[in-house]
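## Example pair
The file below holds two records. Each record gives the amino-acid sequence first, followed by its structure token line.
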Amino acid sequence: MYIAEISPASYRGKFVSTYQLAIVIGVLSAQLVNWLISLYDNQLLDNATAMMILENWNGKYGWRCMFGSRAVPAFLFFILLLFVPESPRWLVKNNKSSLAEKILSRIGGADFAKLEIEGIRNRLGGRHGGGLCCNSNGFLFIFPCNDDIGITL
């Protein structure tokens, strides 16, 4: 959602698709690494009991290596998230438009930033500007946030 919100419209589809592809490649690579780790000790029989598995290298240590192989990229991702700027929509909604404009200027230039800020303000100018909201009767609407249009839950 963040990538779709912050990227220019002309690149939005490419960025979201690339993000989804990166997730799939990450899951696949984690599974391949786990499979390779499981091959380290292949002395386990096909009809092994739970006790045999627990006494095997994979049962004692292999799962720790598998967990660690996933924890390292997750930790790196967390560290890199510290450098991701705040959501421009959130900034505008919380009266920090100058910071939102600065962030958007780095992405697409000053003209893009001004247009995007104006668009965000227009969308926020309604009752909630889209997303989830309730009408006066208490019904929950999903996109757009309007009494006449939406999916009622």
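Second record, same layout:
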Amino acid sequence: MNLGTAFSIGRGGIAQSDKKAVRWFKKAADQGNPEAQNLIGLMYKEGRFLPLNEEKAASCFKEAAEQGYAKAHFSMGNLCLDGRGLRLNKEEAACWFEKATEQGYAEAEYQLGCSYYLGRGVAKNYEEAAQWFRKAAEQGHKDAAFLMWHVLIHGDASPLSGEKAQDWLRKAADRGNLEAHFLGGNAYRVGHGDVKQSYEASALWTRKAAQKGHAEGQYALSLMFEKGVGVAQNDEEAMYWL
């Protein structure tokens, strides 16, 4: 496995070589290394460095999952969710994601939260969804922080009283979620939940979304400059962001 990694990135005096890296990863996988098995499975799944073969991908993931490797549990969940290489089975996908969460894998915590939020393979449960989104968000998952906000604003937030929705939206924005910047601007524009209405704050959040290429944010900022809402009226800026 270590030699495969060395060839994949070119380190320790070893010249980078994708072909040699794959060969060493396959050797490690054949010897039962679960990390290598999962990696080879991803290569087969994506058709990257190895021919696209979703059945072989599933086989590799299963071998790694049987050894308790969390990322392989997550990979199996994705295959069941997409119906690629395995039969489409949302209930089984949720079970695989839950297995991966037992080792604190943030991506699995996020996906299990989505399953509860959407009623995807499990009974819809906003409180349970929020618990898993919180766990993932606490590990730095930007989309989990955003959906934590979404649950508090749009879901059944009664068992979550005391949570400040805007705090989660701010965390998502700070971690680079563009939609969080844009929706934060909307929240300040109308005053939503625990957010006090402020056109100036709305303009600041909207500008952040616009500067990062969010199309709706750019259009909204253009209107703000055109009408002088939260910013000084400026036709040039309005045209620039249109």
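Notes on the second record: Residues 177-242 form a domain with the Serine Threonine Protein Phosphatase 5, Tetratricopeptide repeat fold (CATH 1.25.40.10). The chain has a mean pLDDT of 89.
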